[in-house]
Amino acid sequence: MRRLCLALIFLMAGAVLAQPVQPPRAKPINILLVGANGMIGSRILAEATSRGHHVIATSRHPEKIASGANVQPEKLDATDRSAFTALAWKADVIVMATSPRGGGDPIAEAKSVSDTAIAVAHDTGKRLFVVGGAGSLNLPDGRKVVDTLPAAYRGEATALRNVLESLKASDVDWTFFSPAMSISPGQRTGQYKLGTTTVLSDQKGNSRISAEDYADALVNELEKPAHRRAQMTIAY
Fold first, then answer.
1. Contacts of 101 (CB under 8 A, 6+ apart)
2. Would you state the pLDDT for residue 91?
3. Which end of the chain has the smaller Cβ count within 10 Å, N or C?
4. How do residues 148-172 score in pLDDT, each as one tens digit?
């Protein structure tokens, strides 16, 4: 009987040890997300809140922001430094998911928004994370992507590349995340490559990523920073 009891004890102990160890969940982050109702911003919002992070989700039209647990919708003009600063004090990190498409001059629009964001990050000491553009990357042969684009796309690409240069010249803690050449709604696979300043492509030469996987990688970077004061990119 004693041997039987000892055997059962060892079996039970082995079963406990065999249980898979779950990785610890990241500490919840308070995120100020500017542009929370856009194609990329809405995916960032969904990904961040699904992991238990709290998001102050802002837009000029907060009624368009998806509601849900851990979502605090707020109206914000990203060039309003006073209102922007007040919200930034309540967050751990600022994520800019805006695009310079609201007016006729993307370069001036991007400069106005980025200058405000950099000033707010400086004043509050918060990390600044910017959703950039593929036009800010270089091709494998060293050419700048922006210089190879049709004229119709060059304005926005130039605007975002200028934002990157402004970040480099600043003293804030920043990350500029350029997507692949093609980004669109799709599936969250969690399977992708990360890089820095050069366009990434798959084995067929296609440079693409889903907005869902882009958001996944972005929130990973917020949880475990690996690209501080640096550019990063992503593709399949």
1. 109, 156
2. 98
3. N
4. 999 999 999 999 999 999 999 999 9
Half-sphere exposure of 105 (CA within 13 A, CB side): 6
State the greatest distance between any 2 C-alpha atoms of the chain, in Å, as a whole number: 86
Dist. CA 159–CA 45, nearest whole Å: 24
| CB neighbour list of residue 122: distance below 8 Å, 6 or more residues apart | 170, 171, 172
91: CB partners within 8 A, 6+ apart: 30, 31, 32, 56, 126
The pTM of the full predicted model, rounded to 2 decimals, is 0.89
Q: Which domain holds residue 160?
A: 29-235
Beta strands 193-195 and 230-235 are: antiparallel
> How buried is 72 (Cβ within 10 angstroms: 0-12 exposed, 13-18 middle, 19+ buried)?
middle
Asked if the structure places residue 19 within a domain, the reply is no
- Return the residue matching tokens 């402004």: 166
Total domains, the chain: 1
CATH code where residue 149 lies: 3.40.50.720
13 found inside a domain: no
The strands making up 193-195's β-sheet, listed across from edge to edge, are 71-75, 54-59, 30-34, 93-96, 127-131, 174-178, 230-235, 193-195
